[in-house]
Amino acid sequence: LTAVGLVETAKHEGYKAIIQTAAASQLGRMVVSLAQQDKIPLINIVRRQEQVDLLKSLGAEHVLNSSEESFFKELKKLAKQLDARIAFDAIGGAITGTVLAAMPKHSSVLVYGALAGEACSGISPLSLIFEGKAVRGFWLSEWIRTKGTVGMLKVSSDVQKIMKGGLIHTEISKTVDLEAAKDALIHYNTHMTEGKVLICPSSSS
After folding, report:
1. Which residue of 49, 84, 86, 177 could cross-link 202, Cys pair, CB 3.0 to 4.6 Å?
2. Which helix (H) or strand (E) element contains residue 4?
3. Cβ(25)–Cβ(91) below 8 Å
4. Interatomic CA distance for residues 82 and 17, integer angstroms
5. Could you tell me the pTM of the whole model?
6. Nearest 5°: phi and psi at 41?
7. What is the pLDDT of residue 191?
């Protein structure tokens, strides 16, 4: 629902192209699939080369590694070329300001996560004043509220259909019982790209 809500927001507000951080995450990969379906140009930002390779294997056209020295220059050039004026940010911290600075005038960053564990930073007041840029939040519960009961039922039905059709899905890296839950969480914290971990009570619990 979050992936659908983000993409729907971009479409509803008339944006022609999208930027997303944490693009190799489970949600990020869903956004890749949804953007491909709707033929929306998408700039994907990741942190490691293996994540670049992963997204390329999924058909993503534009993938940038934020660890590369040329990252900002490439992002700015591509954002201008594609007229990407909306970004989905799952990280916060310094990347929020970096992405906003690279975007054209009258751009917005939608912050929907805080993986960095830090406040959004590096945001120039001058870009907000003179370039019409903005940083705002996206909260799924609030987006659902705006849809109303009938609208939410339709969205839920649409999500179920695209999941059944295989357009979006969640990768599961492993399934563990309750006894292994602590170790599984520690593992997941450093291997998020591999997929989610399901914690299932054992038959003896």
Report:
1. 177
2. helix 2-12
3. no
4. 6
5. 0.86
6. -60, 135
7. 67
